[in-house]
Specification:
The protein has no helices and 5 strands. By secondary structure, the chain is mainly β. Strands 1-2-3-4-5 form a 5-stranded antiparallel beta sheet, with no helix packed on it. The protein is elongated, with a radius of gyration of 17 Å. The relative contact order is 0.24.
Length: 93
């Protein structure tokens, strides 16, 4: 079972990146950016991306990409419109 829970927009601007190296040749990179904009900070966004690629110690191959986007609009004190989307591509051999 896979249960994706996307990160939600933040009230304060956020930005982070990461680089990684594991095993003998798998490189990974990720990014997380979010915040609010518009009249009275009405619109929020959060975008996450991650990629992992390389060769494993036993000759296997990894090529994985993941992206997630979360949007919201505070239409009133009691009504918020939201959108969440996830993309995943992987090639494991």
């Amino acid at each position: 079972i896979v249960d994706y829970i996307t990160k939600k927009p933040t009230d304060t601007p956020t930005f982070s990146t990461q680089l990684g190296w594991r095993e003998q040749g798998i490189v990974s990179a990720g990014m997380d950016v979010g915040g609010r904009f518009g009249n009275e900070q009405m619109f929020g966004y959060r975008f996450n991306a991650f990629e992992e690629k390389g060769e494993t110690f036993n000759g296997g191959h990894v090529d994985r990409k993941v992206g997630a986007l979360s949007l919201d609009a505070r239409l009133s004190d009691a009504l918020i419109w939201t959108f969440d989307g996830v993309f995943q591509s992987r090639d494991l051999r």
